[in-house]
Amino acid sequence: MESNTDIYKRYMKILSDLFLKSYEDKGMSASGDWGRSLEVFSNGKMFVGVKANYNSSIMMEKGREAGSYSNIGALKQWIKNKQGLPQAFKDNPDKFAFLIARKHFKDGVKVPNEHNDGNVLSDPINEFTNKYLPRMWQELSLLYVEDMTATFSSALVNLK
């Protein structure tokens, strides 16, 4: 019999898979680092969730305000991995990473834009909430009813 933690983990794996599919389907996988950072985690018995690179998650979903530089190292890696960039970018990653970071500092990054339709994370969350969350609650409620029935039965037996 599955425990409640097993059920949570199974459903968090579904959510993680939905995130990864959205990330790939929407063309956000330049280096693939964000997809590899996705992880279902648990701190023991009860707390289970999905985590990924926080800064990249926010950038993909909401963009960024002007006024702060992007991570130059991450931009160089993006230039190295991104398919379809002009050869000049590949030949001069330091220069172009700085130029991109300066543009981000000056203008921010608006989402949606021509390269990112947005909703990379919110679409999978909405799908999970509508399709899978009710199933998860149903499975958990059945498990909790079984646990409570066993506990009450045991308590009544012990009163005799």
Main traits of this protein?
160 residues; mainly alpha; two-stranded antiparallel sheet; 2 strands; 65% helix
Short recap of the structure:
With 160 residues, the protein is mainly alpha-helical.
The proportion of strand residues reads 5-15%
What structural class do you assign from the helix and strand content?
mainly alpha
Strand ordering within the main sheet: 1-2
Strand count, sense and barrel status of the largest sheet are: 2 strands, antiparallel
The count of helical stretches stands at 7
What would your notes on this structure say?
- The chain is mainly alpha-helical.
- The chain is built from seven helices and two strands, in the order ααββααααα.
- The chain has helices at 4-25, 33-37, 54-62, 72-81, 87-91, 93-107, 122-159; strands spanning 39-42, 48-51.
- The chain has a two-stranded antiparallel sheet.
- Helix 1 packs antiparallel against helix 7 and helix 4 crosses helix 6.
